Amino acid sequence: MTILWKVLNNYLEKELFGLFLKWAEWRSAAVVVMGIIQRAVLHSRPGKNSEPVAENFCVEEASLADGITDGQVKVRTLYLSVDPYMRCRMNEDTGADYLLPWKLGEAADGGGIGVVEESKYGSFTAGDTVCSFNWPWQTRAIVEGKILQKLHPELVGGHLSYFLGAVGMPGLTALFGVKEKGHVTLGAGQTMVVSGAAGACGSLAGQIGRLEGCSRVVGISGSDEKCSILVSELGFDAAVNYKGGNLAQKLHECCPAGVDVYFDNVGGDVSDIVISQMNQNSHVILCGQISQYNKDVPYPPPLPSRTEAALRDKNITRDRFLVLWYADKHEAGILQLSQWVREGKLKVRETVTKGLENIGAAFQSMMKGGNIGKQIVLVSEE
Ligand SMILES: NC(=O)C1=CN([C@@H]2O[C@H](COP(=O)(O)OP(=O)(O)OC[C@H]3O[C@@H](n4cnc5c(N)ncnc54)[C@H](OP(=O)(O)O)[C@@H]3O)[C@@H](O)[C@H]2O)C=CC1
Ligand SMILES: CCCCCC(=O)/C=C/[C@H]1[C@H](O)CC(=O)[C@@H]1CCCCCCC(=O)O
C-alpha cells in the first residue's frame, strides 16, 4: 500500500511540475503579447517627519495599450535611479516648486534609461538607447517622445548606468557645484571637505575638486569601509567616519590649515562642525541637506545661530545651487565628465540592486547610507 502510494505520489508530482512549467512558459509569452508589465507605485506616504520604508512602494501588474499613437515611444526599462530628492516627492506637498508630488496608487517616476522598442516620435528608432528625468517606474512603458533624450553609449564605453550617475545628473551636480560655487583656484593650496563623500555626488565632487586644483581633499562619510575606499580608490587625502565620534577633533587633524571649500551634501550637525572650521572668505557649495529630508522643515533648512554667525563673521559664501539651473552647460558637462571617466581620471563606484520589485528597498537603503557611489536599480538586462 505504502509503495503504491509513493509511486502515485511521484507520478502526480512530476505531472504537476510539468503542468507548472507549461503554465510559466505560457504566462511569460502572454506577458509580452498582451503587454503585461510590472510597475512600482507609491502605496503610502511616510509623513513629513518619518523615515521612508520599502513598504511605501508596492509592485503590481498592469497592461500596456496595444499600440502607440503619433508622438509616442514604447520603451523597455534597463536602469532606474533612486535619488534623495525623491523623499520630497513622497510628500503631498514637496516644498520645492520644481518637484511634483508622486500620486498615491500611480507609478512613481524619476531618472531612467531604456531601449526603444517602437517609435512614432522624431528620429527615435527601435534599438536606440534613451533616457529621461521622468521615466515611469515600470518594466515597459509608452511615453511621450519629447521627454526622452538619445544617449551615446560610446561616451561611457557601453556602461549605460553611468548616464544616471557619473555622466548624468549627479556628475553634473558635482561638476557645476565645484566650478560655479567652489571658487577653486589652481595653485592656491586650498583644502576641500566633502560630506556624503562616498555617495553619488560626493565621490565625484572630491575627485573633481582635486582635478580643478585643490591641494587637499578630505571626505566625511558614514562607515570605515567607505572612508577606506575614499582614500585607497578615489584619491581623497583623508576621510573621517562621522558616526565614529569626535568628528570635530578628527576633522581638525585632517585639515590643519582649516577648510577653504566645503561641498555640503548633508547639512545638520556634520555641516555645523565643518563650517566652524572654515577659513575667512571661504566657500560652501550648498548641494543638499539630506540629514534634514525626513523632517518637516523648509529647504534649505534653518541653521543654528552659531553657524549663521560663523558664516557672517568669516564672510563665507553659501548660495543655493541646483544643477537644473545650468541646463545650457549640460552637454559640455557630459562631454567633460565622460572624457575624465574614459581617461581614468574620474573613478566611478555604483551600488546596483536587481529587480523593479526591490526599488523601494533600494531607495530606503540609499537614504540610510547603504550605497557606495551611485545607487542604481537594474530592471532588465541590456
Ligand atoms: N543641488 C542639486 O542640484 C542636487 C543636489 N543633490 C543633493 O546631493 C546630496 C547627495 O545626493 P546623492 O549623491 O544622489 O546621494 P548619495 O549617493 O550621497 O546617497 C545619500 C547618502 O547620504 C548619506 N546620509 C544619509 N543620511 C545622512 C545623515 N543623517 N547625515 C549624513 N549623511 C547622511 C548616506 O551616506 P553615509 O553613509 O555617509 O551616511 C547616503 O549614502 C543630497 O543631499 C541631494 O539632495 C543631488 C542632486 C542634485
Ligand atoms: C527639496 C529638496 C531639494 C533637494 C536638492 C536636490 O536633491 C535636488 C535635486 C534636483 C537637481 O537639481 C536635479 C534633479 O534632477 C533633481 C530634481 C529633479 C527634478 C525632476 C522633476 C520631476 C518633476 O516633474 O517633479
UniProtKB/TrEMBL annotation:
Domain Oxidoreductase N-terminal positions: 41-150
Signal peptide bounds: none
Compartments reported by the entry: Cytoplasm
Catalyses which reaction(s): 13,14-dihydro-15-oxo-PGF2alpha + NADP(+) = 15-oxoprostaglandin F2alpha + NADPH + H(+); 13,14-dihydro-15-oxo-prostaglandin E2 + NAD(+) = 15-oxoprostaglandin E2 + NADH + H(+); 13,14-dihydro-15-oxo-prostaglandin E1 + NADP(+) = 15-oxoprostaglandin E1 + NADPH + H(+); 13,14-dihydro-15-oxo-prostaglandin E2 + NADP(+) = 15-oxoprostaglandin E2 + NADPH + H(+)
Top-rank taxon: Eukaryota
Record-level Gene Ontology MF annotations: 15-oxoprostaglandin 13-reductase [NAD(P)+] activity
Pfam families linked: ADH_N_2 (PF16884), ADH_zinc_N (PF00107)
Family matches, as InterPro entries: ADH-like_C (IPR013149), ADH_N_2 (IPR041694), GroES-like_sf (IPR011032), MDR_fam (IPR045010), NAD(P)-bd_dom_sf (IPR036291), PTGR2 (IPR037399)
Domain Alcohol dehydrogenase-like C-terminal: 202-294
Keywords attached to this entry: Cytoplasm, Lipid metabolism, NADP, Oxidoreductase
Xref: SUPFAM superfamilies: GroES-like (SSF50129), NAD(P)-binding Rossmann-fold domains (SSF51735)
CDD domains linked to this entry: PTGR2 (cd08293)
Any GO BP annotation: prostaglandin metabolic process
EC number(s) reported in the record: 1.3.1.48
GO cellular component terms given for this protein: cytoplasm
Family affiliation: Belongs to the NADP-dependent oxidoreductase L4BD family.
Subunit structure: Monomer.
Function: Functions as 15-oxo-prostaglandin 13-reductase and acts on 15-keto-PGE1, 15-keto-PGE2, 15-keto-PGE1-alpha and 15-keto-PGE2-alpha with highest activity towards 15-keto-PGE2. Overexpression represses transcriptional activity of PPARG and inhibits adipocyte differentiation.
Name of the protein in question: Prostaglandin reductase 2
Gene name for this UniProt entry: PTGR2
